[in-house]
Design a protein that fits this description.
heterodimer; A: 10 strands; B: 14 helices; 17% strand
Amino acid sequence: AMELPPSHFPAARAAAVAMGYLRYLRGGPGRGLQLRELRSARRQDIDDVGHKYYLELELEDVLDKDRTVNCTAEVLYPLGSQSSAPDVQLTVQGELRSTEEADKEFYTRIRSLEKELVAENIPDSHGNIPPELEPIHLLAWAASGYVIWQNSTENTKFHLAQVKHVKQVKRSDEDLQFDYVVLLHEMVSQEVLPWQVTLLWHPQRGARVSQCQGPAPGD
Amino acid sequence: MWLSLGIIFSLGILIPGKLSFKVRYDRDQVLHIVPETLPQVQHLQLLYSTLKLDLWKPLLPEDIRAGKDLHIRVPAPVVQDVKDSLDQHMISYRVLIPDVQKLVDQSMPRERSSHRQVSGGYDYTEYHPMEEIYQWMTQIQENNSELVTQHILGKTFENRPMYYLQISQPSNKTKKIIWMDCGIHAREWISPAFCQWFVKEILQNFKTDSKISRFLQNLDLYVLPVLNIDGYIYSWEKDRLWRKNRSPYENGTCYGTDLNRNFNSSWGSVGVSFDCSSDVYCGPAPESEPETKAVAEFIKSKKSDILCYLTIHSYGQLILTPYGSTTKPPSNNEELMQVAKEAAAALTGKYGTSYRVGSTATILYSNSGSSRDWAHTIGIPLTYTFELRDTGTHGFELPPNQIQPTCEETMLAVTTIIDYVDKKYFPNGAVLLTSSSLGLSLCMSIVLIWTVS
């Protein structure tokens, strides 16, 4: 495996995939993980399989910026096929801040709404997010994290640009359901494209994407 | 007056503990309702409890009565739902306050000016629409006419004037030029905000800041606050995430060229699309766009005097050097990298924001037709692209509370570069002393000796 400069784009793109996966796996209404710094990167070309990146990441929680957590990740981009998602393995070193209280409070608040929550343009044009929508925004990070993980290649780098629309859908089971339209900015093509994602969330079970649809051709 | 007091009182009892300026009420509305029947009263009580609305009058839901005034604050996200619900139940309402935050801002005492940069009535910590930026340019020239002149570069596709500001200290010396443009991409709002901040800082501090006063003796600063004016306006009015200009193609079914792929540097070779619907459409030919042409013509005409070309973008926290179309380094790569690293270090020193430094092709991606590459190939030695905050958390929609810190740290990077140019091309001996500056330095020496002794 060869050492890669962390400031150059191949490592940076792999790190973005790892972050997408991590946000999907560990994100929630009370936790927003972002990359503080990419400490190191290596790449290994595996014959007939693909390109594997070994990364050391320093993470922080937007809600707890005073401390950082280290994480190692392996991102394997499969050869050739455009339809296969990269394989990501992650190890977070140490404990992430517990969000049990915040999760419970959010869950109760949303469950007790008589009318289903609807919101749009998070953040707004000026970058503002009303505080009561911050948990919805962080869940959008989890939802878009899934999309980013599933759709990335070595030639793309995605970020969530904006939540265009979100609608809560009440369910008869215990999950919360949010139907999102998220706008993803892709750095190489510079396109901003809408994705529809249905996210289920539960305080103990965490986040799951149940449905996901990309932009229609010609969008 | 009573309404304002009522607002402050109501918000005051709402906010637990000490008054917190973190709670906001943007686009929250206060509705005035007079319920007429008991079922209407009950429905209002239900709305109150399920949506956790904020009763201003009466204070308690059990005091809501038919025939009695009701004032209720509705948080922005549910305003429409509440109104729909009221309509459904035939409850008439009037909007008493359309935006609570606006009223709060007006009622609260102004924060000390060291916190907010409101200079001469212009708030540099807010994003401004193009109308206001045009007015700002006029004001800046009027208020600083000894130093600033406004000039027209050309017109945009939609026929709007492209103005740049020239900051030039009167002198009989011929000066060299530092060029900086902002807003080549419409959605990168922090970029024009920085150009405006930069101008303000220079004008506020040129007398007292020794670095600035030194380089202004030798260098003129040319600042183009918004290059892609049509696109910028479009991002305010129609599509916040628009990037390109607004030239129509294919019979008006397809709009916009990426101006930063439209310059004549390896045009159309890599990192572009020939599809007009793409966000990196390079246009039908190099310099096909009026905006590109206006900038290119001007820079060509002054090229022997321009020592440094800076172009400001967002986001990514990067200082990028040539080239984008090849990884082959430019002839003065060592110098470019050295100065960029110093600039990035100065920036990081302010708030710890880390920037990456390197060529576009190694740090970001391949591209061709960029203004920065073109400026370097025609012979301007020091050319940089800045990508300002952040790294993707907010992306293009950087919140206004980050405008000031972003501008402050970036200012340090830019002045480091200008300082380097000044010291390189005008080493100490070459400063021409006019009689006034000689007199001044004599006075200064006397004062200095007097203070030191």
